[in-house]
Design a protein that fits this description.
The protein is mainly β. It is about 0% helix and about 40% strand. It is globular and about 80 Å long. InterPro entries: CBM6, Galactose-bd-like_sf, Ig-like_fold, Integrin_alpha_N, RGI_lyase, RGL11, RGL11_C.
Length: about 750
């Protein structure tokens, strides 16, 4: 039996991982129940778990190949969106192959655990249908069989009118719950970049595996978090949310379970295998479930890279081989990763298929996650770029690194991702080696992964040009045309690999830190701020127009100094826009005025972290989350502290002061910091336990911010491309569309 759910005329519908799409007047959505003919279920039609639609659901046989098949009708040939409602209370994923008319449309489609058998979720994919009748078959790939399948909704006929722009991740709600006190739990979730205006949410709790109960009396339309003070915390509590659009409650999000008698801590703990020290963690949706998974390094000899699903399930390990044993910061081996300000690894969905890949710079002797050893180069100095399957660690494509500077040895790398054409992601590789014992070669390349091949888009060689670089790269749209540029501390490349401008004629040389964001909300475009290392002119720091490189102001002092830190953020709401500071005082950027006449009264310029729920920024400084108070200013060693990470077993990683990763990966728009414990067998993810009325879409759906999450170097703050601070306006909807 089928049922016409919607004939759309400028309406919005919820699809898979919480994605809303606008349908045109000819689009139609039809529901096909798994318990009704012509659907067929290889198993039993059951009704023993509440929350299903219709009269039951398909409970498949526990066998590989166990299937449910639907016959669906399309009025015309073309693409269709299929939303599959399911539940999986087994605690482990139950993947399936999705076939259309006998051909596999997607293999290993993830039906992840939902936390309980009555906690229903929806997954979405796009398929091609023929005019007339079609078969859509879901077949289990493991001996556990399928998840319980309730129905599929098939949208055909009009397609979608997505917001034009770059393709970004189809994120879920990222629900997270932490104990904020002896009797309270903060539940937090994502507002997505393309959520419709006016969307609200209901929060549900399932206690000890029982039926889910709605907690809020009225639909929540403010901050995307909720304080639960009524839970029995001696038992396990599972939380999920349901969006509400136009008064109609939508499908449930994925669930997060707070274990019984859970510690009161602002922490999510993810178990990982024991092993060597971890310097960096990257995030990406490896399995396509809409939530972030983790890729990390092991600083062993040889080095390894490991991947884990969001729940800590180990996926694969890559051995970086004998050419990773020399881990010198400047002149290491050809497959060494993650030393000094270099990485050579990043994670992103590079082919827009809804699942993230892992990009890594390799050399001979690397053993991929499927056990295959790479020996495709003629000697051990030459290098290649490999794109690894996020679920298996197998190489999906490799391509040789250009050999322009091969005579000076292997090249270290910094990897990142940007949308150079405004639509598709490109892998950006900054690569560098030393000429003798002095100067450095610098090469930039851009790469496009098609799903089967890795192709170089362009190559840029610095040569003898005066183009100062530093220890960080930023990939950001500096001119607002929707296409990303690549920025170093002293120059910017256009997205086609040509030089946009150099700051060398303005007196800029090498430095450790720089930032680009909307620092001044009243000035057109984006602004940049950077610091200098032993500039002979005495230049300490500078503020400039990010699109043109034109200087707005500079600070020059007598003598030279290594200004190793510089920070940007709104820490003083008494002044317009953001403050910028290094070691010589806290300045309001737009006015170039000290906000404190006593220049010793400022926070340490390390890293920003949004935590407490207002729009001024907090600071992450050597394991301390701090909140500087402009009305009672204090020096760097006595800034009021919100969290000390070591109290929860966390240890610093990068440069002995940093987490392994920071960024918005769970809950609402506020940021997480990822550490390990001292035994390196647990990720300790700090996530806020403080409620907030501030409502912002997830920072991970902001193009500039998501690019920054792919970059390492000397780790520093990520920034959005709008003004985020006191008195801010509601940010514009991002010009993005979601991957399938």
């Amino acid at each position: 039996m089928k049922r016409l759910v919607t004939v759309a005329s400028a309406v919005t519908l919820l699809t898979g991982a919480g994605v809303f799409v606008a349908l045109n007047a000819s689009a139609a959505t039809t529901r096909y129940e798994a318990e009704n003919a012509p659907a067929t279920c290889q198993g039993a039609i059951a009704s023993n778990h509440s929350g299903y639609s219709g009269s039951g659901f398909c409970d498949s046989s526990a066998a590989v190949g166990a299937a449910v098949q639907f016959t669906v009708n399309a009025s015309t040939t073309g693409s269709a969106t299929v939303d599959i409602r399911y539940t999986n209370g087994s605690g482990a994923g139950r993947p399936a192959d999705v076939s259309v008319n006998g051909g596999v449309a997607q293999s290993g489609f993830a039906f992840d655990a939902t936390g309980a058998w009555n906690a229903w979720a929806t997954r979405s994919l796009t398929v091609q249908l023929n005019a007339g009748n079609n078969t859509i078959r879901l077949a289990a790939t493991t001996a556990s069989g399928l998840a319980n399948i309730d129905y599929i909704d098939v949208t055909t006929g009009g397609g979608t009118n997505p917001t034009t722009g770059r393709v970004m991740e189809n994120l879920g709600r990222g629900v997270v719950a932490v104990r904020g006190g002896t009797s309270s739990v903060l539940v937090s979730w994502r507002l997505l970049g393309l959520d419709p205006d006016g969307i609200g949410f209901n929060v549900y709790r399932s206690a000890a595996g029982g039926a889910a109960v709605k907690l809020n009396a009225s639909v929540l339309t403010g901050g995307t978090n909720y304080v639960d003070t009524s839970a029995n915390l001696a038992q396990a509590n599972s939380y999920h949310v349901r969006p509400v659009v136009g008064g109609v409650e939508q499908a449930a999000s994925g669930a997060f379970t707070l274990t019984a008698n859970h510690a009161t801590e602002p922490v999510v703990r993810v178990p990982i295998r024991g092993g060597g020290a971890v310097k960096f963690v990257w995030v990406g949706d490896l399995d396509g479930d809409g939530e972030y998974d983790y890729v990390l390094d092991r600083q062993t000899s040889p080095q390894t890279i490991e991947a884990y699903r969001s729940n800590g399930q180990f996926l694969w390990s890559v051995n970086m081989g004998p050419n990773s044993t020399n881990q010198d910061n400047i002149e290491g081996s050809s497959s060494t990763v993650n030393v000094g300000h270099n990485d050579g690894v990043t994670v992103y969905d590079l082919d827009n298929d809804g699942r993230a890949e892992v990009a890594v710079r390799i050399a001979n002797g690397v053993v991929f996650g499927n056990g295959v050893t790479f020996n495709g180069l003629s000697d051990n100095t030459r290098q290649a770029v490999a794109i690894l399957d996020g679920m298996t660690g197998a190489a999906r494509a490799t391509a040789a690194v250009p050999t322009d500077y091969l005579s000076d040895g292997p090249m270290y790398a910094r990897f990142g991702v940007g949308h150079l054409d405004g639509v598709n992601p490109s892998l950006i590789a900054y690569m560098k080696n030393r000429i003798g014992s002095g100067a450095f070669n610098l090469m930039y390349t851009a790469w496009r992964f098609t799903g089967t091949a890795l192709n170089m888009q362009w190559k840029f060689l610095r040569g003898n040009q005066n183009l100062p670089d530093g220890h960080n790269t930023r990939i950001i749209d500096v001119d607002g045309d929707g296409r990303d540029e690549i920025a170093e501390i002293g120059f910017v490349l256009n997205g086609n690999g040509t030089l946009r401008y150099s700051l060398a004629p303005r007196g800029i040389i090498h430095g450790d830190r720089f930032h680009i964001t909307k620092i001044d909300p009243n000035r057109p475009g984006l602004q940049g701020y950077g610091v200098q290392q032993d500039n002979p002119s005495g230049l300490r720091d500078y503020y400039y127009d990010a699109a043109t490189g034109n200087m707005i102001w500079q600070h020059v002092e007598a003598g030279t100094a290594d200004v190793g830190r510089g920070m940007v953020g709104d820490v003083d709401p008494r002044y317009p826009g953001m403050e910028v500071w290094a070691f010589s005082g806290l300045y309001n950027a737009s006015t170039n005025q000290l906000t404190q006449s006593n220049t010793t009264l400022q926070p340490w310029p390390q890293t920003g972290l949004f935590w407490d729920g207002d729009t001024t920024i907090e600071l992450l400084n050597d394991g301390k989350i701090e909140k500087w108070n402009p009305n009672a200013p204090t020096g760097t060693s006595s800034v009021p502290r919100l969290v000390s990470t070591w109290n929860y077993g966390a240890v610093d990683a990068s440069q002995n002061v940093q987490p392994t990763f920071h960024g918005d990966i769970l809950g609402d728009w506020r940021e997480e910091a990822v550490y390990t414990n001292a035994s390196f067998n647990e990720l300790i993810i700090f996530t806020t336990n403080q409620p907030s009325n501030t409502r912002l879409y997830t920072l991970a759906h902001n193009p500039a911010y998501r690019n920054a999450m792919t970059l390492k170097g000397y780790m520093q703050s990520h920034h959005v491309d709008y003004f985020l601070g006191s008195g801010m306006s509601t940010p514009p909807r991002p010009a993005i569309t979601y991957a399938p």
